Amino acid sequence: MKKKLLVFTGSPRRDSNSAILAVEAARAARKAGASVEVINLSRLRVNPCRACDRCRDRGPGQCVQKDDMKKIYPRLQQAEAIILAHPVYWFTINAQTKLFIDRWYAFGADEYRCFKDKKVGLILTYADQDVFSSGGVNALRAYQDIFSYLGAEISGMVYATSAGPGQVKKNKTALKEAYNLGRELVS
Length: 187
Ligand SMILES: Cc1cc2nc3c(=O)[nH]c(=O)nc-3n(C[C@H](O)[C@H](O)[C@H](O)COP(=O)(O)O)c2cc1C
Prior knowledge:
Layout: E1 4-9, H1 17-31, E2 35-40, H2 55-58, H3 69-78, E3 81-89, E4 92-93, H4 95-102, E5 119-126, H5 136-150, E6 153-161, H6 172-185
Parallel strand pairs: 1-2, 1-3, 3-5, 5-6
Antiparallel strand pairs: 3-4
The chain binds flavin mononucleotide.
């Protein structure tokens, strides 16, 4: 059976640096024989969680909202590995990605079982000099708590400075790290 990797990108812009690294990771995973899907969250309609708790009665992934999460929930349940790739906005996880993560709340009726033992890869880009001054570290720290709570393993993270669109293409180290991350996640 082919391993399933879902790659979620969270940047709204063309020639997105974080998406370029994500696509590199996807390329490696496909080459390693995995089934890979790249999903651009910024093109989907993902509403904020309403905290209505109806999912607690309806069952895992059974959110009452009729938006694009309907088609994402079953795919998330099936994937063995996921990548979250996004820019740092205001020193942490960007809004497009955070809205998506909030909606995982709908799996809570099942105690988040579908995340247990999933492998997770993280890719962040930011304009500032390093992962500390950019605030990337705040996003990574949140992910440590999020995935520890969910029982999933963070297998690797790639982060890089890149300001203008497409700038990360010149960063051979980051491209290589993203490639290795994709391969590692499906090994
Ligand atoms: C709304 C907004 C907020 C941002 N906040 C930060 C920040 O806090 N720290 C930082 O280093 N860069 C910040 N940036 C810059 C982006 O993180 C940077 O350009 C990144 O490479 C964009 O990735 P992308 O090309 O995948 O969209 C911000 C950009 C925008 C549009």
